[in-house]
Amino acid sequence: MRMMIVTGGTGGHIYPALALADAAKQRYGEQAQIAFVGNDDRMEASLIPEKGYPFYPLHTSGLVGGVRGKVKAVAQMLAAYRKAKGYIHSFRPDIVIGFGGYVSAPLILAAHHLGVVTMIHEQNSIVGKANQLVMKQVDAIVCCYERCLSQLDAQKTRLLGNPRASVAAQAAFDEAYFRSLGLDPKRRTILIVMGSLGSSSVNDLMKEALPQVKEDCQILYVCGRNNPMDPSAFQGQPHIHVVDYVEQLAILSHIDLIVCRAGATTLAEITALGVPAILVPSPYVAHNHQFYNASVLVEADAAVMIEEANLNAQTLHEAIASILRDPIRMEHMRVCARKLGKPDACRDILDWCEQLEGGMNK
């Protein structure tokens, strides 16, 4: 199978795309010919080549700002569309798959106009702008939330989940790494991670909130690489461990409770493994989509939510304590999270790709 994947802008678009590409390589071996397209000035331009995949650059930007900015963005899209046609002629893909970001639109439209099978993947519970631009032209749409189904063409949409769920489900627990973080595998463990970069305000909140957690547990707080904490911040609190970064999938299957943002990738991973969660959606994302992502888990009893405006030492401690003190509720949250999980997402998406390719070649 010759697969061209377009993605860009943020890890939420890029990592699911890489997960599907890795799964295709594992399934098809040398028969898998995979190339990526993305922005020439965003994280995908360095990350994807580092993963060993051919990378074709485009230059695009979002339709934001004033009239001049939007005119410039449209001109960039038209230039990217012409360049995308050249990439398709050169690579000759059997299928083109878009994982979001504005860079997806010109390649998906070019593929459609050239008669190549097209699929888009929507990670969030609200359809992003790039996918809105192309969803009427594509052959297939994969979504991760039932809430999306009402926004999309039901005839060509399937609820198959996020490929990162498959990665999480297959990840092995690394006990040696777990112990290297100062953690005891026999104790209940809370993981608190509020983004890879962290923030000084959240660090200050944790200094007040975490010592209040007196339940029999250990806490791993990931403070973020841009906001290291004073090592003495939790002096005299041996059950609290602070790191600036963690290989999350290496330990996630051994976590009893996670406090985290509500990005699509994170939620795909924790539902695949059935980890109870306290979600603090970021209010700084497009269309407040993390709030709506979190709402799906809350409505299913898989998580509780604290909006950032209401996040303080008292609300966080109360939420943690109310869950840890109720083992029946914890188990119920685990079961409900697993019901939402899509651990077979990669397999199911690749199966559909084969069906689409076969149908077009008849």
From TrEMBL:
Subcellular location: Cell membrane
All copies of domain Glycosyl transferase family 28 C-terminal, residue ranges: 189-345
Transmembrane regions: none
Catalytic activity: di-trans,octa-cis-undecaprenyl diphospho-N-acetyl-alpha-D-muramoyl-L-alanyl-D-glutamyl-meso-2,6-diaminopimeloyl-D-alanyl-D-alanine + UDP-N-acetyl-alpha-D-glucosamine = di-trans,octa-cis-undecaprenyl diphospho-[N-acetyl-alpha-D-glucosaminyl-(1->4)]-N-acetyl-alpha-D-muramoyl-L-alanyl-D-glutamyl-meso-2,6-diaminopimeloyl-D-alanyl-D-alanine + UDP + H(+)
Highest taxon of the lineage: Bacteria
Protein role: Cell wall formation. Catalyzes the transfer of a GlcNAc subunit on undecaprenyl-pyrophosphoryl-MurNAc-pentapeptide (lipid intermediate I) to form undecaprenyl-pyrophosphoryl-MurNAc-(pentapeptide)GlcNAc (lipid intermediate II).
Name recorded for this polypeptide: UDP-N-acetylglucosamine--N-acetylmuramyl-(pentapeptide) pyrophosphoryl-undecaprenol N-acetylglucosamine transferase
